[in-house]
Design goal:
α1 runs parallel beside α4 (133-151). The chain has helices at residues 21-36, 55-58, 97-108, 133-151, 155-166, and strands at residues 6-11, 42-47, 63-71, 77-82, 115-122. The chain is an alpha/beta fold. A five-stranded mixed β-sheet has the order 2-1-3-5-4. It has one domain (6-166): 3-Layer(aba) Sandwich (Rossmann fold).
Length: 169
């Protein structure tokens, strides 16, 4: 089976308050993609954490979007390009997106696809907490932003968007 050209890889734990932002956004995007017919171009995967095995999900993609929640993230979210970073040591536990891309390069002896991170600002991450009021707003804003990304899914367009967010006029 040929993989879809784009991959949205959402990370988070719905039992930990605002850490649910990644999976919740992924589901909203997936429903929207299905309603627009764009779901034939984008695969959506939800996980608690990134693992070495996710290098297999990245293989043969043209564009990759990691979605996660972050503490101390600028409100409502940040969006930026991410590059591979060599993983020092081996672990079967969670990886950062940069490390996952580095593992991909080592395992597949190839450069990973262009990759970006959408990090939604969260406030509370304690076990059993509900989604905060601020996170609900950030989820809506992140969803609107993602629709724009997937309406123009090219590395150049996403890079321009990331540059605009880094250097707002």
């Amino acid at each position: 089976m040929i993989p879809k050209p784009l991959l949205l890889l959402a990370v988070g734990n719905e039992s930990r308050g605002d850490d649910a932002l990644g999976p919740l956004l992924a589901r909203r995007v997936q429903a929207w993609l299905a309603s627009t017919g764009l779901d034939n171009q984008v695969e959506v995967i939800e996980e608690f954490q990134l693992q070495i095995e996710h290098t297999l999900d990245i293989k043969d993609r043209q564009l990759l979007l990691f979605v996660d929640a972050g503490q101390g993230t600028v409100s409502p979210f940040t969006f930026y390009a991410v590059k591979a970073r060599r993983l020092d040591g081996h672990s079967s536990h969670a990886l950062a997106p940069e490390s996952l891309l580095g593992v991909y390069a080592q395992v597949h002896q190839a450069s990973p696809p262009p990759a970006f991170i959408l990090c939604l600002a969260g406030e509370g991450f304690e076990l059993g907490e509900p989604l905060s009021a601020a996170a609900v707003l950030h989820l809506e804003q992140g969803f609107a932003f993602c629709r724009g990304l997937f309406e123009q899914p090219t590395p150049a367009t996403w890079s321009e968007q990331a540059a605009r967010m880094q250097n707002p006029s």
